[in-house]
Design goal:
The protein folds into two domains: 82 residues, 3-Layer(aba) Sandwich (Glutaredoxin), CATH 3.40.30; 102 residues, Up-down Bundle (Glutathione S-transferase Yfyf (Class Pi), Chain A, domain 2), CATH 1.20.1050. The protein is 55% helix and 11% strand. It contains seven helices and six strands, in the order βαβββββαααααα. Strand 2 and strand 3 form a beta hairpin.
């Protein structure tokens, strides 16, 4: 059975969504991204991954896979018939990688990461100034489309959905981009997406208590 090391409402939520959309059972281990401890047994999370970051997907052979773009594509390829990723070699496969890279680099790392980790207003000025321009790109793309890639839900949608959820906590009102607000509502209405978010939101409240 696959194992996913996650922190509630962190980027590993995308991987949980992908697993649940694919109907793949997994063991979930809560890894605290600040203390670097695995909550199950208080072990050192860095012994699981030297990066000390989620997600970490432990494969059935014991190998470990990190980085959301890689983990998401791996999960999708376990159930190719579901279309969570276009098949290798298909032109849309490169569109999937394009969007996974954009979400990871331009929204997650360029804005969400510094917003939640740094408290220096001067350091945050540039990311805050850029986020509007950044979000205008998927907003324009989704003006006439239901999903990011092709005509069905893919793991790129799982990843963008997570970032849009976190933007509110980062002080960005997604309602400024009606296309993104509508898209987020559609994604949250999917039963497995809704269930995954509910699980992690409840866990996050428990940690904050």
């Amino acid at each position: 059975m696959l194992q996913l090391y996650f922190f509630p409402m962190a980027c590993s939520l995308s991987s949980r969504i992908a697993l649940m959309e694919a109907g793949i059972e997994a063991r979930y281990h809560l890894a605290h991204i600040w203390t670097k401890k695995v909550v199950d047994d208080d072990s050192d999370f860095r012994s699981v991954s030297s990066k000390g970051a989620v997600p970490v997907l432990v494969l059935e052979n014991g190998d470990r896979l990190t980085e959301s773009a890689a983990v998401l594509q791996y999960i999708a390829d376990l159930k190719p018939e579901l279309g969570l990723a276009p098949p290798p070699g298909h032109p849309d496969r490169y569109r999937l990688q394009e969007w996974l890279s954009f979400v990871g680099a331009e929204i997650h790392k360029a804005f969400l990461f510094p917003t939640f980790w740094y408290k220096d207003d001067a350091a945050l000025a540039k990311p805050r100034a850029r986020i509007g321009q950044t979000l205008s790109i998927p907003a324009a793309h989704l003006a006439t489309r239901e999903f990011l890639v092709g005509d069905r839900f893919t793991v790129a949608d799982a990843h963008l959905t997570w970032t849009l959820l976190l933007l509110r906590a980062a002080g960005v009102d997604v309602a400024q981009w009606p296309q993104l607000a509508d898209y987020l509502s559609r994604m949250q209405a999917r039963p497995q997406v809704k269930a995954a978010i509910g699980i992690e939101a409840a866990l996050r409240k428990t940690l904050a208590a």
